[in-house]
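Hi C.,

You asked whether I'd gotten around to modeling the 84-residue construct. I have! Everything is below, sequence then structure, no commentary in between.
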Amino acid sequence: MRIVKVRRVGNSNVVSIPRELEARGYTPGTSVLVEEMPDGELRIMRTDQVREQIRDVGRRIVGERSEALRNLAEHDPDRASPRA
């Protein structure tokens, strides 16, 4: 843990990420998501981690609700399927 200051660069506020975190993927040019938590804390995640979390949640939901999703697909009026 390290205390850093918020600085002004142009019209933006900037927080420096300590160099030691480069080994964890926070290298120059890395895209990050900054999320404000309900308690006011900020959470910073690499976008590649966010994408993987979204995929994991999607897989879990499809697995848990596969029957409901099949029923919805069967009743989709826009579904292109041959009718006999």
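If it helps when you're writing up: The radius of gyration is 21 Å.

Thanks,
B.
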